[in-house]
Amino acid sequence: MRRNNIYKLYMKNFKATAYTLQCVATGHEFEDSGWTLEDKESEGPSLVRAIYAEKQLNLRGEEYGFYKFCDWLPVKRLLKGSAAPVTYRSQGLAKHLGLEKLYITLNGYAPEHGAKMTTCSFKETEAYSVCGRMAEDEKRVIVVASAGNTARAFAKVCSENNIPLLLSVPADNLSAMWFEKPLNPCVKLIACEKGGDYFDAIRLSDMVLRSPRFYAEGGAKNVARRDGMGTTVLSAVTTIGEIPDYYFQAVGSGTGAIAAWEANMRLIEDGSYGDKVMKLMVSQNAPFVPMYDAWCANSRAMLPYDADKARRDAAIIDAKVLSNRKPPYSIFGGLYDALKATDGEIIVATNPQARKAAKLFKELEGVDIHPAAAINTAALIKAVADGKIEKDAVVMLNITGAGEERFKAEHEIHYLEPSITFPLNVEPDEVVAKVEALFEE
Known about the structure:
Layout: H1 2-13, E1 19-23, E2 29-30, E3 48-52, E4 86-89, H2 92-97, E5 101-110, E6 115-116, H3 123-133, E7 141-145, H4 149-160, E8 165-170, E9 178-179, E10 187-192, H5 198-208, E11 214-216, H6 223-229, H7 231-240, E12 246-250, H8 255-270, E13 279-285, H9 290-296, H10 307-316, H11 335-342, E14 345-349, H12 351-365, H13 371-385, E15 394-402, H14 404-410, E16 414-415, E17 420-422, H15 428-438
Parallel strand pairs: 5-15, 7-8, 7-11, 8-10, 10-17, 12-13, 12-15, 13-14
Antiparallel strand pairs: 1-2, 1-3, 4-5, 5-6, 9-16
Helix pairs in contact: 3-4, 3-6, 6-8, 7-8, 12-13
């Protein structure tokens, strides 16, 4: 109880983090007008980055939860209910792979490790950062398209903090919309019909955004999303005491890997943890591997990917959250640039390899993991088998989702059903009218 009271006092007295924005393509630095997602002066598509006034990272106490990293988060306020990523040194998996310095950054539910994310996904790091960037007096409804885990995280944060939210999720992914308690009615869910994928959910949300009553969360373009995800690296580095040699993560959009690269650059500027550039080792779930195909062709541009084939491939893979057809790969500051800058690689893993890796992880580390984290673990196993990782290298394995089986076994689970399910060929005017009506009830 005392910790909660202290945290409420911190929330009340918190001052917005000081930062400016910088266009990656041009270096142009400018003030954030409140919800800036791009530099209007840039001639071509480019991400913008947050440049923080505080160049050295000063960790807050554990009572801050996720916001203990607020020096490097573009937030105006602190929200309740957050938890931070947790990093620990592996014993079981490390011994099995012959790695002397394998560190696991755990995002999920594993009380024995201090991991307390009740959605069991590192998408909570995005949601608490993005929603913390919002102005308290914002009247419009934020719109988030998701393959599942992001929607669950935003729903939790917005429900607990009374923030109006519209989610757009493929009907085939609705099993991801589970919660430990019924949600605040400020959270609404729409879906695209069965057979649709994440790209279709994005298209549906874009239709909604034609109404001035709604505004886009922004995805990878939102500095709050990326810097929230970057706290996984901050957790690892402040625990290990140095920047890792290798960073492993499965990618659908690649936003988490971009965030890791950006956090790495800030840590080098800080100077407290060395000057290493982490080699990004990212992975995709075969047969849905559009970024792998582009990378192998040494192409900044994504290669053509037939929509029907993409939907079929997305339906096959276990890690549905990795099925992004329009990732921030080509854009300046995107995954292509991150991989080039870090001499990174993209590794492909199959469903059977991921299932085997998940079983091994649970046996050796005692925690069940999400399919995307299993793809990542399978990629690490392959990289070690191929002789790509030195046995004494410092390795960070970002387990982006864990503990869901255990959490569901220990808690009563509630599901959020869509208010409306739209056909794939729906017209924008119909979508706008029906969704606006949801928020008039």
